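step=encode ok
step=design start
structure_in=
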């Protein structure tokens, strides 16, 4: 299909890569007609993290009702839908298979085209739903519990990974630090809330910058430094200020994320910087990145918090740009738990 924005194209999208069961109807890649998200956070909190087996079983229970609700809220029937989009990787294999199976069955039954979407491309596309004027090229920092990527978005379907984590993702570091502090799960919002009451320079936690010019990240050393600080003070019987620990830890993470992202934007000569992923909802990261972007004359973009989490609307937005360029998938599309960004689906 030739690329066009003249006609109204509706995409029914499905997202089940982790612990959110979501379905959405998106119009022309920019307008959300519906975006239903059923979160499993309450279920997994008692375990301190997502349990893949439980997540998959819950997806099986919810996927059909969530899809039906998405269509109902959008006031459309399947006959009005132009394509079915679905996340096929990366993510938890079992969780991915639930959404993928439902989407493939629906595409087969209705004869609608199937569009497989990379989860990280979906996070990037969440910005298109929030900002009608945003168009490539731009640099996007994608930070979540499983991913920390700096991506040069050359076009709607062309991506270059300029930096990524070599160990823990930023969101993973937040979760592990929150667990060590006894705050609970998920760690990002809890640490962000505590950090507002603390001194970000109270504790000098390490920042990792690679001497070879790489824009990669490493947060495992920072996580270990926090654990050592807590254990050392506990052994001494010294008082520990949780707000100060949270603020200092968060400052260390944000410093590295902002520094590397700004360098990426300068290297590519772009004046648009976007945030995406669950950690993109962090207030300190948003404010710090905006200040740094302004210093180099760049404009800052980020989605509302709801669109930072895993959701199907972002998958529908990403799928639209593939669909109008004729990039559809076969019904033999399979889940790819470790799918690399830029991989083309079959």
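sequence_out=
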């Amino acid at each position: 299909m030739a690329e066009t924005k003249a006609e109204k194209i509706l995409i029914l999208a499905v997202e089940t890569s982790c612990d959110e069961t979501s379905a959405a109807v998106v119009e022309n890649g920019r307008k959300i007609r519906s975006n239903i998200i059923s979160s499993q956070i309450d279920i997994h909190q008692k375990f301190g993290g997502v349990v893949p087996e439980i997540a998959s079983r819950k997806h099986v229970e919810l996927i059909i009702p969530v899809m039906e609700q998405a269509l109902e809220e959008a006031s459309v029937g399947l006959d009005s839908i132009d394509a079915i989009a679905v996340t096929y990787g990366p993510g938890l294999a079992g969780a991915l298979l639930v959404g993928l199976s439902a989407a493939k069955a629906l595409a087969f039954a209705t004869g609608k085209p199937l569009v497989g979407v990379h989860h990280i491309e979906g996070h990037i596309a969440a910005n298109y739903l929030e900002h009608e004027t945003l168009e490539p090229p731009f640099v996007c920092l994608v930070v979540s519990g499983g991913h920390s990527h700096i991506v040069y978005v050359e076009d709607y379907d062309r991506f270059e990974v300029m930096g990524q984590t070599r160990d823990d993702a930023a969101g993973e570091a937040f979760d592990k630090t929150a667990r060590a502090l006894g705050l609970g799960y998920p760690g990002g919002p809890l640490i962000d809330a505590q950090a507002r009451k603390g001194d970000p320079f109270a504790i000098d936690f390490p920042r990792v910058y690679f001497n070879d010019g790489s824009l990669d990240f490493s947060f495992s050393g920072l996580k270990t430094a926090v654990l050592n600080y807590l254990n050392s003070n506990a052994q001494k019987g010294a008082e520990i200020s949780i707000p100060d620990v949270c603020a200092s830890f968060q400052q260390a993470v944000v410093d590295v994320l902002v520094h590397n992202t700004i360098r990426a934007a300068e290297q590519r000569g772009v004046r648009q910087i976007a945030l995406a992923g669950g950690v993109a909802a962090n207030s300190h990261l948003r404010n710090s990145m905006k200040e740094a972007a302004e210093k180099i004359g760049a404009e800052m973009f980020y989605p509302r918090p709801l669109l930072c989490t895993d959701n199907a609307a972002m998958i529908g937005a990403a799928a639209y740009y593939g669909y109008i360029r004729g990039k559809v998938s076969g019904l033999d599309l399979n889940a790819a738990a470790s799918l690399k960004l830029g991989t083309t689906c079959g």
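step=design ok
step=annotate ok -> Confidence is low (pLDDT under 50) at residues 1-5.
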